[in-house]
Amino acid sequence: MNGLQVVFLLAALVSLFSAAMVVSARRMMHAALWLVLTLMGVAVIFVTLQSSFFAVVQVLVYVGAIAILIIFSVMLTRRVMEDHGDQILPGWRAAGLVAGLLFAIIVGFLALWQGFTTMLVELPADADNLLDLGQALVSPQGYALPFELASVLLVAALIGAITIAVDRKEDQHG
Amino acid sequence: MVTAAQIWEWVIKSLIIILVLTGGFAYVTLYERKVLARIQARVGPNRAGPFGLLQPVADGIKLIFKEELTPAGADKLLFTLAPVITVIPALVVTAVIPWGESVTLFGKTYTLYLTDVNVAILYIMAVTSISVYGIALAGWSSNNKYATLGGLRATAQMISYELALGLSFVGPILLTGSMSMLEIVRAQQKLWFIFLQPAGFVLFLAASLAEVNRAPFDMPEAEQELTAGYHAEYSGMKFALFFMAEYIKMIAVSMIGATLFLGGYLSPLTMLSGLPVIGWLFASGPHWLFLKVALWLFFMIWVRATLPRIRYDRLMQLGWKIMFPLGLVNVIVTAAVIVLAGG
Amino acid sequence: MFEDYLPLLVILALAVLIGFIVVLLGVLFGPRRPTPRKMAPYESGMVPYGPGRRRMSVRYYLIAVLFILFDIEVVFVVSWAVVLRKLGTLGLLGMLVFLVVLEVAHLYAWKKGALEWD
């Protein structure tokens, strides 16, 4: 086993374990923090896939922005700020059954898939995925249209957030 | 394949970085107290050792033997973890900053940087965005109104100014065409980027002060209304960790700023001659980086002694309504000039 | 490639270690004599009133949402900046369209008062 495999296995174990903790932690704040650890593990897996750009963006956007939003949302909910009792979904057994079935189906399909055993191809030393990415973003042959549409999507998200949050004047003690 | 010798080299370099940062932290506290005292026509600490040089040691020993309190109703695990989570990003953020090109010791050549990655600036931004967590968690886990409010304020302030900070990085990237810190320093051989990016420099200066919660942006820990902000309930070594993180972050932003805008480890003489300068004192090397960092720190302390604190609503408006649009305009103008000038 | 990132894992591990050692130092050498008075949350010497963690203002949530959007914008700008020289005018225009759309969003938030703290 080489260093790459060791790092991959550790990162995969950490992200799987913390993902399990996200759904089983009793307090919502702890669940949110386990989610942060899961996302960090995924970032390390991106590094082992030689995709450093996605690794740092994973940390920057998911850990540094989206998880912060989740933590803020947890602080916004009244029940958690007071910590009364457990917060367990009433139908968790049924949910567990469905999740288990889905997992079995995915594993079944993966077992049939041929690409599962493909080895990682070493990129040539002069390959710079960063340059390719920047070029693909704005060239019309690449992803120019999705890139511009992404800005429209972001605008829509912003309008939604403002509609939800701005016009309420009663939540003003913080 | 990675050899054992390589791993040892990384461990030793990492230890050197961490030791310089923690040792730097101890003496930046003394530096700050001395400079502030001088500005206010006082003498400053001068009892422990010659010129008060042993003062940081005395402070450290005192803090080790202090009682640590965990307030009733606190989330004990998070309360203990928060200071550790705060100090980790501060210690690792400068890992991509080169201290020089290379040095030959005992017949072997060593590079004067831990690693040179092609996403260095995104790495710095990512680590900066993580540093919000320790502060938010410290505030939340303390079960104290001041601490919760201070943590929330600090978090909102840091994420708001992260945008302006990120945009101020774009100027040097555009001029260099690379995100590697080593490439950015090498591109400043003829002219430091502060002369090509004056607006970006000012933007970085202001946003970095807000990012490390320094005066005049130290609202999250305003003594008069929040007692001490997010670390109100901390004492002993846990408090020392927050203090350490704050001062190491000061050193880190000075290092990053010096590397992006002031030529990093380059000697200023290379700008005049365009030639490599001979003589170790005048030649480029880590000592130039440290000198620039020391000057930058002096500036931060000077600002603290001079400017009053900005009100919180003004502070958020400054970030969102002035600095962020200014950063965008700077990016567009720089990009347009580069494209029109033909690269 | 992957080897360039291993040193970052090394320094991360060392930083974690040092953080825990410092906490441990305080635990080992500090005295521990808790009293109920001492453990009470600090409220400037007054008897603590009400819960320590209150619901925060929805403003903070809004700031976090705005931050996500514009953080993604900054990430795109940074990765575009690396290759601008190769892209030329077309690259500049492509990014301008993107920035103008998001600036409309920024102005909308501004007009709606989402950036005010009252």
Automatic annotation (TrEMBL), chain B:
It holds the Pfam family NADHdh. The chain crosses the membrane at residues 12-30, 77-100, 120-140, 161-185, 191-210, 247-267, 287-307, 319-341. It comes from the Bacteria. One of its GO terms (molecular function) is quinone binding. GO terms for cellular component: plasma membrane. It is found in: Cell membrane; Membrane. Keywords: Cell membrane, Membrane, NAD, Quinone, Translocase, Transmembrane, Transmembrane helix, Ubiquinone. It is an enzyme of class 7 (translocase). It is a multi-pass membrane protein. One of its GO terms (biological process) is aerobic respiration. Its EC number is 7.1.1.-. It catalyses: a quinone + NADH + 5 H(+)(in) = a quinol + NAD(+) + 4 H(+)(out). NDH-1 is composed of 14 different subunits. Subunits NuoA, H, J, K, L, M, N constitute the membrane sector of the complex. Belongs to the complex I subunit 1 family. NDH-1 shuttles electrons from NADH, via FMN and iron-sulfur (Fe-S) centers, to quinones in the respiratory chain. The immediate electron acceptor for the enzyme in this species is believed to be ubiquinone. Couples the redox reaction to proton translocation (for every two electrons transferred, four hydrogen ions are translocated across the cytoplasmic membrane), and thus conserves the redox energy in a proton gradient. This subunit may bind ubiquinone. HAMAP family: NDH1_NuoH. This is NADH-quinone oxidoreductase subunit H. It comes from Bellilinea caldifistulae. The gene is nuoH.
Automatic annotation (TrEMBL), chain C:
It is a multi-pass membrane protein. One of its GO terms (cellular component) is NADH dehydrogenase complex. Keywords: Cell membrane, Membrane, NAD, Quinone, Translocase, Transmembrane, Transmembrane helix, Transport, Ubiquinone. The keyword Transmembrane helix applies. The chain crosses the membrane at residues 6-29, 60-83, 89-110. It holds the Pfam family Oxidored_q4. Its EC number is 7.1.1.-. The keyword Isomerase does not apply. NDH-1 shuttles electrons from NADH, via FMN and iron-sulfur (Fe-S) centers, to quinones in the respiratory chain. The immediate electron acceptor for the enzyme in this species is believed to be ubiquinone. Couples the redox reaction to proton translocation (for every two electrons transferred, four hydrogen ions are translocated across the cytoplasmic membrane), and thus conserves the redox energy in a proton gradient. NDH-1 is composed of 14 different subunits. Subunits NuoA, H, J, K, L, M, N constitute the membrane sector of the complex. This is NADH-quinone oxidoreductase subunit A. It comes from Bellilinea caldifistulae. The lineage of its organism: Bacteria, Bacillati, Chloroflexota, Anaerolineae, Anaerolineales.
